[in-house]
Design a protein that fits this description.
The complex is a heterodimer of chains A (278) and B (179). Chain A has 278 residues and is an alpha+beta fold. Chain A has seven helices and seven strands. Chain A is 34% helix and 15% strand. With 179 residues, chain B is mainly α. The chains are: A alpha+beta (278), B mainly alpha (179).
């Protein structure tokens, strides 16, 4: 390889790095023709190719997500959770008590069998534990700690973090226990938990997909070490949407969470779930 | 080149994204096709790259050269894809020799594209990458040097060396080649 050929190639591409050597016109013409051939060999725009991309991104774009819209959706989602959560909460019970029911504080609505003791936790304590303990200091790997189940709801000090055997507790550098809701927000029941792959900027991430249900309300939480990866996962066709917080056309609420900014947002949201004194 | 009219889009951001999509489509598909040696895989990664652009659109749309960003993403996707494909071929080859997919399996490409694909496939990786990035991505020497982790002079030399190597094999296809 000589400097001569580099100069010819640079002229052929239209970005000369030095003056063209004398007598090199024929060679330049040959290389220039080659560059032209290569450029012309690009596949023509194919029918439907761009439409396919637009179809995949359009649901998100149609919503016009921006900071305010996302913030509004967070507030809306928080409201939905709050309604579901407090509609099932018993009155505050004395600390350490296994029953919250007292003669002058009826449960509303009753979810247990008639006469059975209600072992659900005091709402204020649970919310405070979640927001203050879990988010403030992530659990140590393998400790079995993490997002604690509501005291009294699950027997034993270390309730299984993955009742379905599907959810890893630690994935890479991310401790997903910190965001793991055994019962979901608002007393929602965990229906499925699985690890799925997400691609973002050419890199692939393992993310955790949790699906909760409470009556007709369904919630999908995508947890990842990177919020963009979580959002990227929400972009998959079956989700039909893409945003940090979104409501699918069929009413399913989608949340994309990571362990940095989104976790902080979630923390703020949880701290906002304070029961009103009765 | 025959370009379709604009997309039926509504919002401003969407129009900008649609504009990027329209400007970049042929070159990105060309880059991926000749980089990967497969039309089908190029179509898949094209969508992935554009979805990545849309996911990061708030930042990408403010970039001085969003196309360069998309090409970098596409290149990363192609690298990851190449690694994965290599593993698949090794596994498939071990299970059933001869069953592993080949780069020439795509049926829709033209004879010219197939010849170019073959010629490029025989180039060493850095030369092929330099040619693909310059011809189809329109990358600057600085960008090519950064992506290949070489100096600008080396990037220029890799490009020139790649062109020189494929030139004899494609001489009859070039506009003045048969005269």
């Amino acid at each position: 390889m000589t400097e001569h050929e580099t100069i010819i190639a640079s002229h052929a591409i239209g970005e000369p790095v030095a003056p063209l050597p004398a007598g090199a016109e024929a060679e330049l013409a040959r290389i220039r023709d080659l560059c032209l051939l290569l450029r012309q060999s690009s596949p023509s725009p194919a029918a439907g190719r761009r439409e396919a991309v637009i179809a995949r991104v359009k649901p998100a774009a149609r919503f016009g997500w921006n900071g305010w819209a996302a913030a509004a959706m967070v507030v809306l989602a928080a409201g939905i959770f709050a309604v579901g959560y407090f509609s099932q909460q018993p009155p505050v019970a004395p600390a350490g008590s296994t029953t919250a029911k007292t003669s002058n504080e009826p449960l509303s609505p009753p979810s247990n069998e008639p006469g059975a003791p209600d072992v659900r936790p005091p709402a204020r304590d649970w919310v405070k534990e979640q927001s203050d303990q879990v988010f403030a200091k992530p659990a140590e790997e393998g400790s079995g700690a993490g997002f604690p189940p509501p005291p009294g709801r699950l027997s034993g000090g270390s309730a299984p973090l993955d009742p379905q055997g599907l959810l890893p507790t630690v994935l890479g550098q991310v401790d997903f226990r910190a965001l793991y809701w055994p019962e979901g927000p608002g007393g929602m029941q965990l229906e499925s938990a699985k690890v799925v792959r997400a691609a973002k900027s050419g890199l692939e991430f393992d993310v955790v997909r949790l699906e909760y249900r409470h009556r007709d309300l369904r919630l999908v939480v995508i947890q990842a070490s990177d919020s963009d990866a979580a959002v990227a996962r929400l972009m998959e066709p079956e989700h039909d949407n893409g945003a940090a917080v979104a409501i699918r056309r069929d009413g399913v609420v989608l949340l994309a969470l990571c362990n940095s900014s989104d976790r902080a947002a979630l923390q703020a949201m949880l701290k906002g779930l304070r029961p009103v004194p009765r | 080149m025959n370009q379709p009219t604009g997309m039926a889009v509504t919002s401003g951001a969407e129009q900008s994204f649609g504009g990027l999509l329209e400007r970049i489509e042929s070159r990105l598909i060309g880059y991926l096709r000749f980089r990967l040696g497969s039309g089908d895989e190029a179509e898949d990664l094209f969508q992935e790259a554009m979805l990545a652009a849309h996911s990061n659109w708030s930042e990408v749309r403010r970039m001085e050269n969003p196309e360069a960003w998309v090409f970098r993403v596409a290149r990363n996707l192609a690298i990851n894809h190449g690694k994965r494909r290599g593993t698949e071929r090794r596994v498939l080859g071990a299970l059933a020799p001869g069953v592993a997919p080949t780069a020439s399996a795509h049926a829709e490409e033209t004879e010219t594209q197939r010849r170019i694909q073959q010629a490029l496939a025989e180039l060493p990786e850095p030369e092929r990458e330099a040619v693909c990035l310059k011809i189809w991505a329109g990358s600057s020497w600085v960008e090519i040097a950064r992506m290949l982790q070489v100096s600008e002079d080396t990037a220029t030399r890799l490009f020139a060396r790649g062109l020189k190597a494929i030139s004899p094999r494609l001489a009859d296809l070039a506009p003045g080649g048969q005269s």
